[in-house]
Amino acid sequence: MDGEYFEMKHSKREIELFVHTLASLISIGLHFEEIIKFADKEKWNVTRKEITQFVKMAREYIAKKAILVRPEILGECIVRLDDLYKRSMAINDFKTCLAIQREKHRLLQLDGSGEGDGNDLFFGDK
Fold it and tell me: How far apart are the first and last CA of the chain?
């Protein structure tokens, strides 16, 4: 975290704490005004301008984490789809098996559409 702008007012540790807390709040869907209220309630003693910068840093942190965990999440998805496929096949639910296979193909880009590169795991459907 580059806390250069804030170094005089906040320690590096405080900035890291703010950024990690904001990343958690963003991940549960809090909007900017709700974050402002949270910071006031928690007595962070920060300005709107600082919160804006902290939110930017938190979003960058989230993006870096998403890049690092992407293969693992994609792997988890494939394992879960395989498990669902086995369970569906065991009860002769062929319609669900077909839907699962289509989803797996989409995730692995085997359907030729160019979609399903796994980015939708983090950024929504294309």
Answer: 30
